[in-house]
């Protein structure tokens, strides 16, 4: 047994309203519920850190975005969210009390989960410096898939990330740098966020509201862009295409801009470009490789860990959500769910 | 020595005019010139078959298309063109008289060429059934690169080729079929050409002038298109994208339509598509693999050999060129340059 008293009842945050059209704090209600006991093969987890995702608003809608490969949120229940915590009671033969577990039962202090591909996953606690860092794996694997598996980023590449202050975007840029990219450029939506990207180690960053995107990229990447990690589409895609180097690889991850760009068909041919869309499905082997790399980079200080952290537990979440959806968050946003 | 008398003088066809805006027979003049003798390391080739390329008109222009990775044609000289012929005098240590050679000195009865990467290439005469078949290698390698190297066509794929009656397009469709594609669909510009595609073994073919391309493809490929080999762009690209299957691979080869399509950015992501442009640069190993496969397919009758053949030697070429440029040619167009 871990030396933590398990309460009989604990708090959860339920979804009780839907965006109309904005998200407000009233859409959530704090509820006390029984913690319960794990069944055979399950574990009881004391939740420590939870991720706030940028697609959360889509998942709150009555008519969820059918393009998202994730279940929408139901009313009267805690929404799901990537979460890490420590096992306090285990009835699973391969998980010990004290082990660190990843699962999707967020928005609550305690969770009961099975262990398996679609349920909880036992984490190697020592692979990363702290439990909090393990929450990077979820956005990080999307960034890794785009940068490494899809775009094959490597030594000497000039890299552009659009929407670079998102959790995934910020990690994509850092992964590129850690893998030897010659130059990493990020676009974002405000002066503050430009500064944030510089703090993360982006070589250059700009506010997409400032002047011509195509000219800006031509200045920043005079020899062309080798790898483009695109969270936006629209004009940013067009500007990247106009500045693509020969053999450029574009990894399309998101379409924040709802405008479809024109495809310069002949340019794609003449430059021998590859444009590939992907969703965040990946092989377990990739996750091991990424986690090992992230651990090295965090320990040697090459990967800058600067998440937006929401302190104050579940009670602070509704306000944080409203702020995050107002696009004030920078990088990965994490909620601290317990005090130790 | 090969038992062929080598004449002192032979005929060539010179470019003497440029399109204004159309190509006419007057743009070519037949000239008699000295055959000459090969220098050390060179061979004298009696030309047998020459390819007429679809980009020939671009190469005839005063301001050639800068997107073509090939030299334009000079006035007062024979244009270059992919050609095969038999060595009648060899001063190269590794090439024997009687060997079959590929080079780019077309539009003439005899050619003197060096042997090397950018000059002539000795062919394995027995790899394909006849010298004529060796001319398939040039368009065939472009088709192979797009279908096999870029798109990775394989068993069970539903394949769509736009501009399928071009030399490259017709070979792309046949390569897909020979590699086990479940269904190969081609688009072209006339009823006659639709019939031609069916004769080549395309499972379905349609005239792009007939109705909605998107609806037509939806009928012909109800489970979606896995591989698209695009010679056209514009509406055909858009229709293929609208009908793409999950994980579809698009190989962009040419932009016959000058209209750029709109890129449905989110569709590329949600379907996990890959869109890749390529030009016909390839590794020697690819050529060996392709030639071996083509030899097997020709001998077992799976690959239908139905080129447009121009008989009558050089004298027949100007008229044939005007016709080919008028888009009446179907498949690979070859000129027979010698009578045996």
TrEMBL record, chains A, B:
Keywords: Oxidoreductase. InterPro entries: ADH-like_C, ADH_N_2, GroES-like_sf, MDR_fam, NAD(P)-bd_dom_sf. Residues 11-113 form the Oxidoreductase N-terminal domain. Residues 167-293 form the Alcohol dehydrogenase-like C-terminal domain. SUPFAM superfamilies: GroES-like, NAD(P)-binding Rossmann-fold domains. It holds the Pfam family ADH_N_2. Gene3D superfamilies: Medium-chain alcohol dehydrogenases, catalytic domain (3.90.180.10), NAD(P)-binding Rossmann-like Domain (3.40.50.720). PANTHER family: PROSTAGLANDIN REDUCTASE, PROSTAGLANDIN REDUCTASE 1. This is Enoyl reductase (ER) domain-containing protein.
């Amino acid at each position: 047994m871990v030396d933590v008293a398990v309460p009989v009842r604990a708090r959860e945050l339920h979804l009780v309203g839907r965006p109309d059209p904005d998200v407000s704090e009233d859409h959530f209600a704090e509820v006390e519920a029984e913690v319960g006991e794990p069944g055979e093969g399950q574990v009881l987890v004391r939740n420590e850190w939870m991720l706030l995702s940028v697609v959360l608003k889509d998942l709150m809608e009555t008519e969820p975005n059918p393009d998202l490969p994730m279940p929408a949120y139901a009313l009267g229940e805690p929404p799901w969210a990537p979460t890490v915590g420590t096992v306090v009671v285990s009835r699973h033969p391969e998980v010990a009390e004290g082990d660190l577990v990843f699962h999707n039962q967020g928005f609550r202090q305690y969770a009961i989960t099975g262990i398996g591909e679609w349920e909880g996953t036992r984490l190697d606690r020592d692979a990363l410096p702290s439990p909090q860092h393990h929450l990077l794996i979820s956005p990080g694997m999307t960034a890794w898939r785009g940068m490494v598996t899809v775009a094959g980023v490597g030594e000497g590449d000039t890299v552009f990330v659009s929407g670079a202050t998102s959790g995934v975007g910020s990690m994509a840029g850092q992964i590129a740098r850690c893998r030897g990219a010659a130059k990493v450029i990020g676009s974002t939506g405000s002066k503050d966020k430009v500064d944030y990207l510089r703090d993360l180690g982006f070589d250059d960053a700009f506010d997409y509201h400032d002047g011509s995107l195509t000219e800006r990229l031509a200045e920043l990447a005079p020899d062309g862009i080798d790898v483009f990690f695109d969270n936006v589409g629209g004009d940013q895609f067009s500007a990247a295409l106009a500045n693509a180097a020969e053999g450029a690889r574009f990894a399309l991850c998101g379409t924040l801009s709802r405008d479809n760009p024109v495809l310069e068909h002949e340019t794609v041919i003449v430059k021998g470009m590859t444009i590939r869309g992907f969703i965040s499905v990946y092989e377990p082997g990739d996750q091991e490789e990424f986690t090992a790399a992230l651990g090295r980079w965090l320990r040697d200080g090459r990967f800058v860990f600067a998440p937006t952290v929401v302190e104050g537990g579940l009670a602070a979440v509704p306000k944080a959500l409203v702020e995050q959806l107002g696009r004030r968050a920078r990088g990965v946003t994490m909620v601290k769910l317990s005090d130790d």
